[in-house]
């Protein structure tokens, strides 16, 4: 295995390169060429992985298949990239995003520095929550083109800074915030979102629905009370929620409560424990609340709180 921050790397075996790209870049490769003078740095925080490769690989193109969402960022030199028959040359500061299951071919130049960031949908949900977006009620679209961050891109500097703190532990204060900023930069550049409104006219009820939920988020939320609040029948409520959110009112209430709990757990001023917060937001079974929370955010509420406590000095 290549050593992290190796000053002078020898040729990497095909197996070590394959393992590194799988573990830290979320990429499967059919055949791995040997590296020549290849230096690698890497860092994993929860379900987000970062990898930087510096130096030359063999001139053969590297065929990859993404297992996760994977950002490919050219740090210097030129990175050849081919996807679905479209061939691009990524200059320094340019990047592309692969979605799970996508295939591509990469070709490295001799002086290339290449960054990889690998993350799953749960990580995307957490970043969207930081941006006050409830992922389950918006339609997400992934940008398939090349995005230019600039030659001295912020995202490359944040990845370098994050990896330089590898000996600080998984959830040290600064690394957690670097990780969040990197996620936001990726989503702002590659992921567009819009509400799932259609032409049925249900959009006129969005404001009233949000107002009702905001007033009652820590008390009772019921279909009957909401129907009365916005002036429609109980049956109409189900149609409206299907149009707007693609789910039943009960499913939406549950997700909004989990989202609200996440926001409070992430807030450095919160002093309540997880059990009390579960009860506060209408969950009678704290264990079930933790399970639903993990299904949506990819981590337990206790893990979110741990990150917040270790990083509270910067909030």
Automatic annotation (TrEMBL):
Note the superkingdom of the native organism: Bacteria
| Keyword Acetylation carried by entry | no
Q: Name one Pfam family in it.
A: HTH_18
Task: Tell me the protein's name.
Answer: AraC-like DNA-binding protein
Positions the record marks as coiled coil are none
Lineage at the top is: Bacteria, Pseudomonadati, Pseudomonadota, Gammaproteobacteria, Oceanospirillales
Q: Which GO terms describe its molecular function?
A: DNA-binding transcription factor activity; sequence-specific DNA binding
- Output the InterPro entries linked to this UniProt entry: AraC_XylS_family_regulators (IPR050204), Homeodomain-like_sf (IPR009057), HTH_AraC (IPR018060), HTH_AraC-typ_CS (IPR018062)
Provide the alphabetized UniProt keywords. Answer: DNA-binding, Transcription, Transcription regulation
- Name the PANTHER family on file: HTH-TYPE TRANSCRIPTIONAL ACTIVATOR RHAS-RELATED
Q: Where in the numbering of this chain does the HTH araC/xylS-type domain appear?
A: 207-307
